[in-house]
Write a structure and sequence with these properties.
The chain is α/β, with parallel strands linked by helices. Helices cover about 50% and strands about 15% of the residues. A hairpin with a 5-residue loop joins strand 6 and strand 7.
Length: about 850
């Protein structure tokens, strides 16, 4: 342990109060001294910035004290590496977590303003796309709430993924310029700057002791600069840090080019370098797109590890202590390049011998897998690695050689097993398997739902589980109730807290105290009132935003998630068309009016997913403009799905569509958020649906479709989707309408590829599950007619969702993987003013 330097004198500063007088004083100061306006000239955006900076002041006090307490105790910290952090808006979340929303609301009301209107000015932070990024954000909230020393590391994307618009029914991508008005929550750290290298070559030499060394030379350089965002816990003084990296050119401007009249050339290097942090998940259909994605991953991983190591060596000079002070969690395979990067730092920079460095590395890293789809496991061509990261490829080769040597000795003569387990996939174009690298280089690998973990062990990574029998563990995902109930659904939060107190916000299992109230007629009536208010609010937003009038008394049937074939939005569409046909011809018409609500983005290069979006909108256009079904059926696609849109939709949902093919969804968290807000689930036994089904009981959920075993049997028998098409006249009519251009009269062949896929391939078995799905939907109708029984089952869902808090998830990570403990500290309160 290094001798700690003398502690510098801490400057005194005023602690900001939480009372109305202190808030009013802070607000005036921020408006004048930070925004540069007074209350006569301030616009609504000026007021938002003043309120945001006033809130940030209170965060910062607690944040600095939290960071000081970590340094004082030299406690072990967890670093969560993720390509995405879907944080949403920060204003209301920060106020609720710090506990001063109400006095702020009162101060603003006295000034003639509404907090909700000011909060609506804020842009969602465009730092993620779907469940992966929102899970990371929930985890940061829970780490802080549980007082655990945790940091997030990612990229500060200037334009996010994209802003989705729907034009003529089709998805169109626009830049999501969420930083156009600056970001009041972040602190730029120009002094936290690390050099990131690419390309070049590796020179080998022997040092004075004769040890072979490697020097990576003639590289291109990009600088990574830090931006810090405080992340507050709920009802505690802990505020943790999210550090995001932005790319800066090592040389901003070439005066020589400029003086020669080549103005574009003068800034070419700056532009090329800073493209790294412009956009989340650039389209990787092209080789250039693939190269940019790998560059992004290495960029943030290298900067993060350099930062972590710099923090470690300030007070430690023995790298054997690294696993005792540092835990690094890889959120999916995107950051798995961190494993060879850590080896490079330890072996090439700090000159540790290989075996010692490898032991330290594997004890420090852990890997979370988020997919069961083999095609979704990241691979990169060896040729790309060799060109861009030559030293890392050498290290990966060495890791693989030593690993396969162990496998060979365990299973002598089993060449097939060696090929299956190798980090390098042989073939016409050799590939680096990043998931294999993450497994070999981590001390623990976790799945994110019980079924998911079982399938990882039994199928996807069967060989690795046999080789490392204690490495794979399950930690089921969870969501933070602070955002997904307390902030998103204040009316339901109030109703629950009036009955059982508010301790459930940090101990979600206490929701079980609501169980007896499911049989209380008065509570059921109040519960229905809350749901109806939320539905009316969403209906108003849909009318305002899309110009579509929906019936708030109809069943709100919701499917909101990333658009992907395995998530089976298309199965939902097939059912909608079947209902439409029943209404038109009067045969077995549905007894319940429905509003189908979709939202979600398709990856820019995923053509079939974009076709599904187009079909949804074409179907909506026909149905919504048909007077024969106007009162019974509506279809709405809400564009540009983000956290704020989710908080509008989820509290209003009656039915939650969780209908992925069994064995394809790792976990899902939308299922948890919707059920927590009183939506009943229609779903397959896939992902966390299995555990939700177990918790709420078979009678309080609508389960349909083939199980994992049923899907496997169908495939083994040679699945023939045409058989289901020919055997079911209703299904045949639906598919024929799509194929004939009923919903696309201006382009009758538009959806021929969808029909061909369904009839000749149907990889995700929509046709095999169609009958079962329609039957389950008929059961939904029957129950919804009895509103009192529907409310009872919805309450039972809410009461039995306590297991799905991200607090429980983080406690399990801390115990099973990270070996970290809460660190209690208290914020020095503002002393009482003298009279």
């Amino acid at each position: 342990m290094k001798n700690k330097q003398d502690t510098p004198i801490l400057l005194n500063y005023d602690y900001e109060g939480m009372d109305e007088a202190s808030i009013k004083h802070s607000l005036a100061n921020r408006l004048v001294y930070t925004v540069g306006k007074d209350n006569f000239t301030a616009t609504e955006r000026d007021w938002f910035e003043a309120v945001a900076y006033m809130t940030r002041d209170r965060l910062t006090e607690r944040w600095m004290e939290t960071m000081r307490s970590y340094y004082r105790s030299d406690t072990k910290r967890v670093y969560y590496l993720s390509m995405e952090f879907l944080m949403g808006r920060s204003l209301l979340n920060s106020m609720l977590n710090l506990g001063f929303r109400e006095p702020t609301e009162q101060v603003l009301a006295e000034l003639g303003m509404k907090l909700e209107a000011i909060a609506d000015i804020e842009f969602d932070a465009a730092l993620g796309n779907g469940g992966l990024g929102r899970l990371a954000a929930c985890f940061l909230d829970s780490l802080a709430t549980l007082r655990m020393p945790g940091y997030g590391y990612g990229i500060r994307y200037e334009y996010g993924m994209f802003r989705q618009a729907i034009e003529n029914g089709a998805q169109v991508e626009h830049p999501d310029n969420w930083l156009r008005y600056n970001n009041p929550w972040e602190f730029d750290r120009p002094e936290v700057l690390f050099k990131i290298n690419y390309y070049g070559k590796v020179v080998e030499y022997r040092d004075a002791q004769g040890v072979l060394r490697h020097h990576w030379v003639d590289t291109d350089e990009v600088m990574a600069m830090a931006y810090d965002t405080p992340v507050p816990g709920f009802g505690v003084d802990t505020v943790n840090n999210l550090r995001l990296w932005t790319a800066k050119a090592s040389r901003d401007f070439d005066l020589g080019y400029f003086n020669e009249g080549d103005y574009a050339g003068a800034v070419e290097e700056k532009t090329r370098s800073e493209n790294l942090s412009k956009v989340l998940y650039p389209n990787d259909v092209t080789e250039m797109g693939k190269e940019l994605r790998l560059k992004q991953q290495y960029f943030f991983v290298s900067a993060s590890l350099q930062d972590i190591m710099q923090r470690f060596v300030r007070v430690n000079d023995d790298f054997e202590l690294l696993p005792e002070k540092v835990a690094i969690q890889l959120n999916d395979t995107h950051p798995s390049i961190a494993i060879p990067e850590m080896m490079r730092l330890l072996v090439d920079i700090h000159h540790l011998e290989w075996e010692r460095a490898w032991q330290i590395t594997t004890q420090t890293f852990a890997y979370t897998n988020h997919t069961l789809l083999p095609e979704a496991l990241e691979t990169w061509s060896v040729a790309l690695f060799e060109r861009m990261l030559p030293r890392h490829l050498q290290i990966i080769y060495d890791i693989n050689f030593k690993f396969l040597n162990e496998v060979m000795h365990r299973y002598p003569g089993d060449g097939d097993r060696l090929q299956r387990m190798s980090i390098i996939a042989e073939g016409e174009q050799r590939q680096v398997r990043m998931a294999h690298l993450a497994i070999v280089g981590s001390h623990k690998v976790n799945g994110v739902a019980a079924l998911h973990t079982e399938l990882l062990k039994r199928q996807l990574f069967h060989d690795f589980n046999a080789f490392y029998p204690d490495k794979f563990v399950n930690i089921t995902n969870g969501v933070t109730p602070r955002l997904w109930l307390n902030q998103a659904n204040p009316a339901l939060t109030k109703l629950i807290s009036e009955q059982i107190g508010n301790g459930w916000l940090t101990h979600l299992e206490r929701l079980r105290e609501l169980l007896p109230l499911a049989d209380d007629a008065q509570f059921r009536a109040h519960f229905r009132e809350v749901k109806q208010q939320n539905k009316q609010r969403l209906a108003d937003k849909i009318a305002e935003r899309l110009g579509i009038r929906v019936n708030p008394n109809s069943l709100f049937d919701v499917q909101i998630k990333r658009i992907h074939e395995y998530k089976r939005q298309l199965l939902n569409v097939l059912h909608i068309i079947a209902l439409y046909n029943r209404l038109r011809d009067g045969s077995n018409p549905p007894r319940v009016a429905r509003t189908f609500i979709f939202a979600g983005k398709a990856a820019p290069g995923y053509w079939m997913a974009k076709q599904i979006i187009h079909l949804i909108n074409d179907v909506a256009d026909i149905i919504n403009n048909d007077p024969c079904v106007a009162e019974q059926l509506k279809v709405v696609f809400i564009p540009n799905y983000d956290v704020t849109t989710a908080t509008d939709i989820i509290p209003a949902a009656d039915l939650s569509e969780q209908i992925s093919t069994a064995g394809t969804e790792a976990s899902g968290t939308g299922n948890m958020k919707l059920a927590l807000n009183g939506a009943l689930t229609i779903g397959t036994l896939d992902g966390a649906n299995v555990e939700i089904h177990k918790e709420v009981g078979d009678e309080n959920i609508f389960i349909f479709g083939h199980t994992v075993e049923g899907v496997d049997t169908l495939r083994e028998q040679g699945y023939q989707p045409q058989d289901y098409y020919q055997a079911n006249p209703e299904l045949k009519q639906v598919i024929d309408m799509i194929g004939a251009g009923f919903f696309s009269p201006s382009d009758t062949g538009r959806y021929r590829a969808i029909v061909d896929s369904l009839l000749h391939r149907d990889q995700y078995m929509l046709l095999a599950d169609f009958d079962s799905y329609v039957a389950a939907q008929d059961r939904v109708d029957a129950l919804f007619l009895d509103q009192d029984q529907w409310s009872r089952k919805a309450i039972l869902n809410v009461a039995q969702l306590g297991e799905f808090s991200s607090d429980r998830t983080i406690r399990e990570y801390a115990k099973k993987i990270w070996d970290i403990e809460p660190l209690n500290h208290k914020h020095p309160k503002r002393p009482a003013k003298k009279k």
